[in-house]
Amino acid sequence: MPDNGAILDAVFRAVDEVNRTLPPEKRLPKDAQAPLLGADGVDSLALVNLIVETELAVEQDFGSAVNLSDQTAVPAGVVPLATLSSLAAYIAGLLAEARHG
Amino acid sequence: MAEAALRIVTVSDFNLANLNAYLAHDEQEPRVEAVETPFGNVHQLLMDPGAACWAEPADAVLLWTRPQAVVPLFGRVLDGEAVSHDDVLAEVASFAALLARLGDRAPTVLVPSWTMPPGHRGLGMLDLRPGVGVAHLLARMNLALAEALAAVPGFFLLDADRWLRDATRPYLPKSWYMGKFAFGNDVFQDAVADVKAALRGLRGQARKLVIVDLDETMWGGIVGEVGWEGLVLGGHDPEGEALVDFQEALKGLTNRGVALGIVSKNEESVALEAIDKHPEMRLRRDDFAGWRINWRDKAANVAELAKEVNLGLQSVVFLDDNPVERARVREALPEVLVPEWPADKTQYRKALLALRCFDLPALSDEDRQRVRMYAQDRRRKDTLTDMQSLDEWLHSLGMQITVAPLDASNLARAAQLLNKTNQMNLATRRMTEKEFAAWAAADGHWVWTFRVADKFGDQGLTGIVSLAREDDRGCIADFLLSCRVMGRRVEEAMIAVAFDRARREGLREVVARFEPTAKNKPCLRWWEESAFAKDDGDAHVFRLPTETDYPVPAHIELRTPEHA
């Protein structure tokens, strides 16, 4: 079972890719608690890029495809894209589900 | 001072935001300001010259479309409908005509070719069958578009299929459905690299000289230790075969007008013997514009060799297997492009072909023959050392200069020369083919091109002079000459042609205004030493009354269309 640190590393790699499309002043910090949504978050296109790049990084690192855009899979009260940390925790849950069928 | 960023308007039927971001943030020259337009408005933006994106002058337009979005009948073909392919091609012709309108809005228009929708297998085994297959139809559509756009100055069709082939993730369905990105980001990054290469080529910034190391780069092994017979080159050896392929790729560059040079730490006689005698060598002495084979610092040798062939360091690429030598040249000569080089020799050819620094907007006979001209030049200089005086040498050359007005047959080469000549250049005007042709066509403007030949060979179109009538004066607007023929009094012959025209037009004097740049001091020196008088009030203005005698130098035979 991948630990959260390894998942966060994959997310940070996705952040690196997304940052290549952003001007310096808008780049996402590689800070687990950095907000992704709201006024201090990123714009919608950057969010799309982050979802796509994170899915690719997770599949590459852990060999499992995860679908981060499936809103029906999100448990009540969970906001996966609140921060990079919450995104990593959500991915950990998806990977665990995939592992246990 | 840094040059202003080029303003590039991007137009597409899909989301180009990521491509625009890569364009804007890419560190390679030239810098670009990407002007984004709302995607899905291709036809509207083409038809409406008053749209906001055209309000300010654009340096270039990048127009990237999916074929099914702009050629509706192709969309129906994709859906499996029976549609006449000729009707589809008629729609392509209409779209090409619409595209051509962009010629009035930007000097350069870059159009990525159309690609098959991702994952579309068409009709499988029938897909390349004429009149039936979707892939066959798309190939014809691209050819029709390429041929239509080839006739429009400043338009270039870029091969987008290559970007998709080389991409790890050419297409991501999620990117399309969530963001309307038609391609993966590695496709956009590859596209940006090619767009930048095209812009550099258009600005005369293509590299023109590749300097290569010998031991472990051109061949395997140390020639000074194993002798030419012991080198790894060709034969039944993977590295040997790869090195032959690498040499052939280098030779291929010479056919594009890129000269080759050698800088190697070796005994010259030993290394040249290997070049002459090794049966698997694909490159021989005459393939090289020059060499520095000695034990001196490689950076100094690279600089010297570039100077010998009259090229600036910004025109040079240096290839060496040794990371220490690469670092040394990179540090000492930052203008020289020193790519990282693979340790694995089987990767050499691929690494060379991946360099995006040789793209040109036109390929002339002169480009193709340049290496031969360098070899001629070496022999020409050898004869100079045997002669007693410069005059004697000049007379021995048997020089002929053919003058021709600017026309469709020489426009591409003339524009290329206009945009890349630095040293002997009076005004350093940079113009596209279209702009140059328009300038030449204006009343009271004349442009002449000059081909120089001598007993050693034809140097090709190497000079341009243009003259503009201003009241009772003839003003030299352009005066530029390739470094290859500088110092043989071709300059005087060129000015004599413009001078003669000014006199025949009844103009009182000929005036030249020197516009200084970082590189054109040789031109200023020429004017200061010429028969023209420096203006009293401005040291960069030179004048000569047309009543003065200004003959063509005696050692030059001038051929004009009338007298040829």
Structural overview:
The complex is a heterodimer of chains A (101) and B (564). Chain A has 101 residues and is mainly α. Chain A is 51% helix and 0% strand. Chain A has helices at 4-19, 44-62, 84-100. Chain A starts with a helix and ends with a helix. By secondary structure, chain B is α/β, with parallel strands linked by helices. In chain B, the strands form 3 sheets. In chain B, strands 10, 11, 12, 13, 14, 15, 16, 17 and 18 form a 9-stranded mixed sheet that branches. In chain B, strands 2-1-3-4-5 form a 5-stranded parallel sheet. Chain B is globular, with a radius of gyration of 27 Å. Chain A binds chain B through residues 17, 20-23, 45, 48-49, 51-52, 55-56, 69, and chain B through 15, 17-18, 21-22, 24-25, 169, 172, 174-175, 178-179, 181, 185.
Helix and strand topology:
The complex is a heterodimer of chains A (101) and B (564).
Chain A: H1 4-19, H2 44-62, H3 84-100
Helix pairs in contact in A: 1-2, 1-3
Chain B: E1 6-12, H1 17-25, E2 32-36, H2 42-47, E3 60-64, H3 67-70, H4 72-78, H5 85-99, E4 109-112, H6 134-150, E5 155-158, H7 160-166, H8 173-179, H9 185-202, E6 209-212, H10 223-226, H11 238-254, E7 259-265, H12 268-277, E8 288-294, H13 298-308, E9 316-319, H14 323-332, H15 348-353, H16 365-386, H17 390-397, E10 399-405, H18 411-420, E11 424-425, H19 433-441, E12 445-454, E13 457-470, E14 473-481, H20 490-504, E15 509-513, H21 521-528, E16 533-534, E17 541-545, E18 556-559
Parallel strand pairs in B: 1-2, 1-3, 3-4, 4-5, 6-7, 6-9, 7-8, 10-18, 14-15
Antiparallel strand pairs in B: 10-12, 11-14, 12-13, 13-14, 15-17, 16-17
Helix pairs in contact in B: 1-9, 5-6, 7-9
